[in-house]
Amino acid sequence: xxxxxxxxxxxxxPVERLGAVRGGRIVDLNLAAARxxxxxxxxxxxxxxxxxxxxxxxxxxxxxxxxxxxxQTALNSLKGSPxxxxxKEGAVKLKAPIPRTRSLRDFFAFENHAKAGxxxxxEPLAPEWYDQPVFYKGNARSIIGPGDVIPWPxxxxxxxxxxxxxxxxxxxxxxxxxxDAHRHIAGYIVMNDCSARDIQRNEMVCRMGPxxxxxxxxxxxxxxxxxxxxxxxxxxxKIRVNGKEWSNSQGAQPYWxxxxxxxxxxxxxxxxxxxxxxxxxxxxxxxxxxxxxIRPGDxxxxxxGPLGILKNTVGKPNGSIHLKYKKTGAYA
Length: 332
Prior knowledge:
Layout: E1 2-8, E2 15-22, E3 25-28, H1 29-39, H2 45-52, H3 57-62, H4 64-77, E4 86-88, E5 93-95, E6 103-107, H5 111-120, E7 135-137, E8 143-144, E9 149-152, E10 159-160, E11 163-169, E12 173-174, H6 178-181, E13 185-193, E14 195-196, H7 197-205, E15 218-220, E16 224-226, E17 238-241, E18 244-248, H8 258-266, E19 270-271, E20 275-278, H9 287-290, E21 299-303, E22 309-317
Parallel strand pairs: 6-20, 8-15, 9-22
Antiparallel strand pairs: 1-2, 1-5, 1-16, 2-3, 3-4, 6-7, 10-14, 11-13, 11-20, 12-19, 13-15, 13-16, 17-18, 17-21, 21-22
């Protein structure tokens, strides 16, 4: 299935709902399940639907294989696009598929991107990079979705993007083996790891972070593609800015695959449904690698083919005061 979180208007304000994309329409899975249970003569169909097919992706993932199966059955049961259950894809606002992910780990899995960073620092890539997949923990509370404006924090002059694919954990586990790790992946999402490069550089020189250089925004969307529909191989990725192609991955694959990354992340700690594991970007999947920078108002398209196109506009700097780091550690 290709799942989305979408927003509908109600008398009490906008409400987020879980949908599936089918034939150019978005089907509300919770309402489709209630409709099916009612037709089957099940008692309390709405309550049953809330239990088996909750109206949010995190709830569906918590229900595991049974909830995903019930959602697929409800989707398959629909004939046509009944009013009140399905909407035209462009008629509703899409949100991040998981607007409130439980945790965010972003890896550094593409070898050429890692080598390019080392080269900019005039040093070889550390041999330890090949010992294990490394990652940082991002801010799971700063998720934005397709169509949203990417915020430009006042403290950076070099806003950048990183085109990635993220795997979403669907089954809890700890100390998971590499051979079993694929069973814990529920699906995949296109991800933009927004970066304040000047601030990130200051943090990394101090051997800490990244933190403020990354924590202000991570963009997800438009779809959550379930693992039974996509095999986890990174599709060909294309970057367009204002309609012009900036980069093409040519089908590059990460050195570390998702099962290995997931297994490593689970060692000595619990992974939960809804945890996000970013791949890191490919070489020239960000402005830093290309030596060119996005500007306020730019239209950014991250095209991952069957996983969807993540479209956003770059915002204007947030306020006119820029923090300046001084040797004393004080702000100006």
